[in-house]
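Re: the 216-residue chain
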Amino acid sequence: MKEDIKLYARISGKSFFRWLFIAVSGIALTIVLFLVVLFQNISTTGEDERKKTVFIIDLAMDNTGAFLLLAGAPIFILLYIILANKIAIHHMIFQIWKNKAVHYVEPALKNIVERATSQHNGTKKVADGAMLKARLLQENRQDKRTSPINKRVIGYGLKKIRLDDIDFANEKVSLTTIISDKLKAYISATAEPGYLLVWLLAGFQLILFACSRYFS
């Protein structure tokens, strides 16, 4: 039991620090470029007290790179957070597979499937993959007994695997077994996440900054 706790703590810690590194670095870069470009272009206006709308329109026409860095700063920050979340959960899934810890996820998944497909919870019979996936995701979100790391892995995996190829007309089909096998197959096929998209986003911002300097 202690080994399981240590393993989960180590996986959670590594994933969190990856998220923190990507999010903080990206947000810091965005804010620095925003401030540099802002002061750079405000200084060129001299004593002219133009309205903000006129300033933005002029900037968009005369220096598109600077305009995109200023107007797009919230979008860049949001993209860094999205990428941080994606890479962190991918890293978590990869570490679970690498450390042969998939069997820790299976009991929680089994309970979720059983609750989602139970005839005693007042729901109708599952008719298709979309309905089943929606129920599974809802049960996973509402589960109070499963650890946060398992819930994140299960939730992310359920969104990625296909359920529309299940024969729901066959009463002998074991949904628990099928979904568990699909989730394990997805986890085992998940490669170690890279930072390519993060570098591309940062590179795009730096190119815009270089263009803003050139046309200033």
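Residues 50 and 110 are 64 Å apart (CA to CA).
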